[in-house]
Amino acid sequence: MREPQHRKPKWGRALLLVGLSAVSWTDLGRNLSSLAQALQTGQSVGYSVRLSANGEGRAPLDVTMTATVPGGYRVAWDYGDGQGGAGAEVRHTYYRAGSYTVRTQILDGQGRVVSTATGQLDVQSSGAERAEVTLLLGAGEVRVSTAGSVAYAPGTPSILVNGREVGPKAVALAAGQHRVTVRVPGSSGILERSLSFTMAPLGGSVPYDAEVLRLTNRARQRGWNCVTLREGGPALPPLARNSQLDLAATAQSAGMALAGYFDHQSALDGSTPFRRVQATGMKPRSSAENIAAGQDSPEEVVDSWLRSPGHCRNIMGDFSSIGLSYVTRPGTKYKRYWTQVFARL
Fold this sequence. Notes:
Layout: E1 10-11, E2 13-24, H1 26-38, E3 48-53, E4 61-68, E5 74-78, E6 84-86, E7 89-94, E8 98-107, E9 113-123, E10 134-138, E11 141-145, E12 158-161, E13 164-166, E14 171-172, E15 176-186, E16 189-199, E17 203-204, H2 206-221, E18 240-241, H3 243-259, H4 273-279, E19 286-293, H5 298-306, H6 309-315, E20 321-328, E21 336-344
Helix pairs in contact: 2-5, 3-4
């Protein structure tokens, strides 16, 4: 995974800022592609294998294995960690780092093995076990996630807001101080983390969000060139608005407005753009984030992004979906906070 790049150049005048972040997972894709190819070698019955995973190749890693076989045949799997499964589609979690020899067998109607193939799956370590809190803030509400936690054991986390256990749903919060605690089952016991944050009234604008989307897709349709800063290049398909990415974008804009920072890494919970996307339940192949602060209008902020090379590459990038959030909080340094979150699903 390429580490997110954080840039905060001044744009035009004081109190106008833009920033970007991007991440993709090509190493995991190559790993799974190599494994899938190996699991189709030496076959006497024509079949295909497809694999997908939920992250960047680090434990705990959820892998979905799918085999397409002719009618009358069955599939058996050996995951390489002492466990196995059966069926055309199986899901398995590798809780620890290591190199696993995965085996697939195709059986005929009498249960005879007619084809066997093996391949290696390399799972990297995520470091020491830890509990993390990821806040998806909104206007008068919060969703809490354990995205970013590392636990090398199965189990169901618990989430408490102000001492009351809640689920992944949105929790309404009044203005003032609040405390969140997460508890995650680990290999040696319960991992716990708590943090406090302050809620305050926030404003926004549905028309502004819609206009940012329109201007962004107009730039893509007209083939904006990030080098020459002119239209006329290859047209790109429009980005589709996604409600889960909207949650990630709102968490970032609201976090900056409430905690007074301007960075892709949250000063509230330490979350990165990818962690916030994860917290919504999405598992995209790649994602990126543009942020800005201080711009007065959708036209001004989109123009700022388009004239900044890194932000422009995100807008004109190989993405299919977008989330948007414009948040206002009078009395703060920048008053207006803007976020775009991009994803390729």
